[in-house]
Design a protein that fits this description.
homodimer; Quinone Oxidoreductase, Chain A, domain 1; Rossmann fold; 2 domains; seven-stranded mixed beta sheet; six-stranded parallel beta sheet; 12 helices; 19 strands; IMP dehydrogenase (chains A, B)
Chain lengths: 346, 346
Amino acid sequence: MRATLMYGAGDVRVENVPDPVVSLPTDALVRIAASCICGSDLWPYGSMQPQDRPVRMGHEFIGIVEDIGSEVTTLRRGDLVVAPFAVSDNACPFCREGLHTSCAHPRAGFWGGTGEGGQAEAIRVPLADGTLVKLPVAPDSALLPSLLTLSDVLGTGHHAAVTGGVDERTRVTVIGDGAVGLLAVLAARRLGAERIVLMGRHRARTDLGRAFGATDVVPARGGEGIEQVRELTGGEGTHVVLECVGTRSAYEQALGIVRRGGVVSRVGIPQYEDAPVGFGSLFRHNIRLAGGPAPVRAYIEELMPDILDGTIEPGRVFDAATPLDGIPAGYRDMADRKSLKVLIRP
Amino acid sequence: MRATLMYGAGDVRVENVPDPVVSLPTDALVRIAASCICGSDLWPYGSMQPQDRPVRMGHEFIGIVEDIGSEVTTLRRGDLVVAPFAVSDNACPFCREGLHTSCAHPRAGFWGGTGEGGQAEAIRVPLADGTLVKLPVAPDSALLPSLLTLSDVLGTGHHAAVTGGVDERTRVTVIGDGAVGLLAVLAARRLGAERIVLMGRHRARTDLGRAFGATDVVPARGGEGIEQVRELTGGEGTHVVLECVGTRSAYEQALGIVRRGGVVSRVGIPQYEDAPVGFGSLFRHNIRLAGGPAPVRAYIEELMPDILDGTIEPGRVFDAATPLDGIPAGYRDMADRKSLKVLIRP
């Protein structure tokens, strides 16, 4: 079959690879109906050292179950399913607490670590009963793009808002106008926030952010951006800052914006290890730090009904679509910010 | 009157200073009945550069109201009162949310910033209506030492447990066997925690920690300490780690001990600014970071009844007492760990 491989920074290829098969009794084989390129794929696309053993790409997909192992009990051939970006058994203590991204099963983990990727024609899914969730629509449903966001970006934006404690009493700033940032806006609105400041400088994206619920847009960054958000909030800053970028400068921007006693919730993968947390940053005013890889599996049941009944339309983050062969161009367009998020239809 | 002044590291003197007076209509003048030396006083005692203008010391006291300004409405001469370690108006939006240490009033702040200190015969208290809390006991009550802990160390231990989300479902580790650490144990037990690991190496202190509710004591630090706590908790670590020291090594120890999805709650004043917060430390497993200067004013009404009825006896952290003249020796004894916490009876 055809699959997407990254050989190094800027070097993504769609190549022939061996067809995946069910190899463990808990596996499923899924024929992919829709997948996509993630903003987080752009980190290695920008910086990966060239290597002989390329990495299989893609951690968001919807597909049709084509085969199952002997121990798979909740799925059948022909089921349409969505996969979270992390494999989990949905049964260990962490999964039961809703922290599927910290699943204790030895075969749990992120796609890529499994040797498989979703930007392909098909995929072997480990721990299929725990990982996959059935979708109650037909494979040609117009809802597929929105349902695909359940695999990562919608659940990730929702996680930012949940771990930030967003509700109707909190004012919120979202840093970043990528797909996750925009869906963090949508999630914050959905959880009741009435004042949502979106920090981003790409007009088409921030316009979508406004459609999702942003009440204010601040294109400025750094000190100027901080000052503008403070001006919008009577000098106080916002109770919650959803940091959806992952750079240290975005973290520092969040520190400048968060209200005393507030929360900085991070879902952008940190591209730094050390950062200010002492008396002059977090400690003095009891600022809390939250977030991490979203346990999107825990949120699918809650979020899916709102997609099915049209309350939310997160699939609007897809502004381009391509078959497999167009994936290298899709990476380029996303890196160049010509595309917000590219849908893949194998 | 006599008051305590710090001139530099290791140089604490009790000297004659001008008598304090009511200078603003919101002030009160309080004759001090009991105060004490704080673990946090040992940071400047260990490192302060010598200076010409010494710093007034002491931020925990109980005393009798001797005079009040014309706008003070809730206090009368003769009232016995306890003062939190931060001055606040108890009226601004932050105070109303229970975050008195971030009070927005321009005259709010920590003692010392006020030019006053509690290790003295008397003290001028700004924003007296907001700051002081009346005590329903006589000045010679045997409960005074326990009630004095409401001014800082009990409320600080309680704050660690509250911001850590301690309840009957959480396992807890407390790092540090100083007065705050020991009272964090007491607070965690009071909030329902059934498994409390105390990390400390001073037998007399950890014995008091056991009396306060610690179920396990781990004297080892660093990697060895982390391993021992993990062994005690089935490899998982504890849901909450209350970091009551303030060093970067204590922070890193907390990272090693906290369970996936758990909380590191800090109340020891950080002696560092940057620390690990990235994918390899907090982010990967959704570890949250919480804590800061405790808004002890917010907790006094909740905690005082348990002292009055004998349910808790936090005053047991005082293992020495001295009149004013013994304060320099008291600092030395606490720095040398001969005393846990020194009570001052002017």
